[in-house]
């Protein structure tokens, strides 16, 4: 009886062997299709966990955590994070960008998030969260966020073949510039796998499109994209290649070989309908960035003038006058933006002399007064330059302005020296916080200073200005070797 029932049960309940590999493959495909949503959900979970941990520390009962106000506050914080994360493209290239970029963007987004949430806390959330609970939540979230990124990047590095479906691609044309490109792409965390290299004469192409067997064979082998070297192919061959690749649904991309020719990174911009190449990125050419930087300069300099210089100037004026005769302020023509001269103001730190426009201050300079030595060591002598900032001659942060005599001297001796005049000079700068301030002992020292100034010009961000201001204040209290 049992033997007769068993076939009936097998028909009624058909048994199929579970294919674990197929299930795992489907899970991976789902994760790849929705890759940018998974970290977003994880960040939401981490933010919620941060609130729970903070609540356990600072709330007396669990009912308070589930109150409508607290829940709405949590949702509000999560929505703000989502807006910031997407505005910074935090999740768009999480699988392909290098680790340094991902960590840097994550930290910057978190810092902006704290800044905005702090403002909203005093406006909207003060009645919902206590200050301790609120800021503990934000810093716990930052800690969890950093740890999750480190874990994710470690996992991605080990199992990168599971995350990125690499497209098959080939290179047509060869020159010295792209000799190592195949190795770089195949070994790096990119979405391509170079499966072949061809010279132009190794690919049969007919202008009438009747014979494109080699391109068709690439298509049959799964090639999805062709990288083409412009300088290694004729114009007619490129046109034929584009036609035949279109016929086989293969995308064509061209190597930008300008970096090899110019020996530096380049940017492609548009002038009307014409593309132009520029050899230097300049964020401060953007009207938006100009407005942001100028607005900050005005607000910051007004605060210093009203709250510090209003009482400090009379005090320092008495000390300067008591020690030596002469004016309170020292003004000197210096090179400004676009090499336009302007009068730069300082508290007078030297005895009145005939060499102030020709000779830099040096260590144990006899011209420096006792009060002046203190002013220079603490950088207080630079404070009147906030009036220059308010006038628009200078910025809070930028390359330090040099004497006109030194500008004429170094422009012919230091490589790319005049590039630093593309932006307004500053009270402090990237070169100064890295130790390149004060007396210029030799041309190598000046060359390093100029390189730092150009690096600031090409990589400007508002957060970089904040970092330089913080380091400047830190160095004042710490003391600097070259501050004399």
Main-sheet strand order equals 2-1-3-4
Number of helices: 19
How far apart the termini lie comes to 106 Å
- Determine the structural class based on helices, strands and strand pairing: alpha/beta
Main sheet makeup: 4 strands, parallel
Query: Which radius of gyration do the C-alpha atoms yield?
Result: 32 Å
Low-confidence sequence ranges: 206-210
Number of strands: 10
Q: In oligomeric terms, what are we looking at?
A: single chain
- Basic shape: flat
The amount of beta strand, in percent, is 5-15%
Write down the overall mean pLDDT. 77
Q: Please bin the fraction of helical residues.
A: 40-55%
Order of helices and strands: HHHHHHHHEHEHEHEHEEHEEHHEHEHHH
In words, what does this structure look like?
With 484 residues, the protein is of the alpha/beta class. It is built from 19 helices and ten strands. The chain has helices at residues 2-12, 20-33, 37-58, 62-65, 68-87, 99-125, 131-158, 160-163, 181-187, 213-220, 235-247, 258-262, 287-323, 370-377, 385-391, 404-410, 430-433, 443-458, 462-478, and strands spanning 167-172, 192-198, 223-228, 251-254, 267-271, 274-278, 329-335, 341-347, 395-397, 426-428. The longest helix is centred in the middle third of the chain and has 37 residues, at 287-323. The N and C termini lie far apart (106 Å). Mean pLDDT is 77; it is low at 206-210.
């Amino acid at each position: 009886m049992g033997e007769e029932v068993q076939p009936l049960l097998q028909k009624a309940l058909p048994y199929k062997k579970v294919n674990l590999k197929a299930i795992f493959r489907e899970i991976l495909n789902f994760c790849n299709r929705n890759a940018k949503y998974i970290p977003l959900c994880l960040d939401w979970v981490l933010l919620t966990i941060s609130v729970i941990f903070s609540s356990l520390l600072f709330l007396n009962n669990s009912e308070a955590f589930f109150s409508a106000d607290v829940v709405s506050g949590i949702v509000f914080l999560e929505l703000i994070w989502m807006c910031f994360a997407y505005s910074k493209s935090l999740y768009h290239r999480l699988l392909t960008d290098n680790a340094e970029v991902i960590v840097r963007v994550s930290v910057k987004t978190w810092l902006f998030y704290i800044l905005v949430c702090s403002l909203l806390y005093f406006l909207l959330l003060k009645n919902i969260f206590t200050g301790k609970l609120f800021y503990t939540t934000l810093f716990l979230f930052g800690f969890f966020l950093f740890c999750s990124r480190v874990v994710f990047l470690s996992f991605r590095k080990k199992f990168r073949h599971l995350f990125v479906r690499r497209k098959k691609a080939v290179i047509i044309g060869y020159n010295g510039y792209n000799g190592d490109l195949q190795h770089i792409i195949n070994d790096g965390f990119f979405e391509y796998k170079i499966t072949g290299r061809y010279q132009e004469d190794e690919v049969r192409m007919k202008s009438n499109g009747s014979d494109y067997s080699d391109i068709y064979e690439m298509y049959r082998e799964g090639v999805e994209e062709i990288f083409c070297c412009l300088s290694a192919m004729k114009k007619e061959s490129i046109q034929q290649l584009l036609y035949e690749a279109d016929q086989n649904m293969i995308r064509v991309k061209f190597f930008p070989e300008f970096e090899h020719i110019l020996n530096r990174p380049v940017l492609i911009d548009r002038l009307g309908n014409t593309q132009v190449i520029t050899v230097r990125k300049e964020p401060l050419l953007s009207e938006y960035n100009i407005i942001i930087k100028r607005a900050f300069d005005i607000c910051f300099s007004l605060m210093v003038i009203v709250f510090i210089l209003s009482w400090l100037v009379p005090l320092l004026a008495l000390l300067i006058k008591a020690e030596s005769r002469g004016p309170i302020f020292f003004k000197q023509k210096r090179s400004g933006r676009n090499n336009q001269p302007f009068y730069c103001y300082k508290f007078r730190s030297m005895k009145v002399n005939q060499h102030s426009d020709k000779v830099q201050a040096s260590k144990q300079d006899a011209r420096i007064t006792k009060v002046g030595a203190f002013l220079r060591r603490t950088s207080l002598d630079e404070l009147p330059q906030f009036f220059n900032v308010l006038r628009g001659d200078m910025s809070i942060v930028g390359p330090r302005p040099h004497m006109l005599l030194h500008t004429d001297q170094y422009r012919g001796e230091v490589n790319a020296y005049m590039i630093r005049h593309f932006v307004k000079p500053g009270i402090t700068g990237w070169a100064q916080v890295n130790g390149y301030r004060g007396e210029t002992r030799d041309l190598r020292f000046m060359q390093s200073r100029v390189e730092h100034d150009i690096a600031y010009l090409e990589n400007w961000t508002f957060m970089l200005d904040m970092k330089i201001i913080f380091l400047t204040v830190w160095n004042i209290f710490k003391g600097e070797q070259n501050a004399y």
